[in-house]
Design a protein that fits this description.
The protein has 89 residues and is mostly helical. It has helices at residues 2-25, 34-40, 48-64; strands spanning 67-70, 77-80. It is 54% helix and 9% strand. α1 (2-25) crosses α3 (48-64). It starts with a helix and ends in a 9-residue tail after the last strand.
């Protein structure tokens, strides 16, 4: 039961991150990072559990090929791969 609840949380936050990226995508050339997503959902920087869900969601979207990482520094910066449409995202 506990594992199933964790999966539901991950899917929930992955959906939140996708919606946030679509909001950010409205302005061209916008870089995506955890801080911007956190600002959209008004999450305080002390809420580490939500922040962990957001950065793991970004890594999942990168593995799926929907966003790409820019550089190797910290904070991790991403951008949407231009060929993606809203239906694919």
């Amino acid at each position: 039961m506990r594992v199933r609840q964790l999966i539901n949380y991950r899917e929930h936050y992955l959906g939140n991150v996708r919606r946030a990226i679509l909001k950010l995508r409205a302005s061209e050339g916008t870089l995506i990072n955890v801080k911007r997503i956190r600002q959209i959902f008004k999450v305080e920087n002390s809420n580490r559990s939500l922040i962990n869900f957001y950065w793991t969601s970004l890594e999942q979207l990168e593995r799926e090929g929907l966003i790409e990482r820019i550089g190797n520094g910290k904070p991790k910066l991403y951008r949407v791969i231009p060929k993606q449409t809203e239906e694919e995202f």
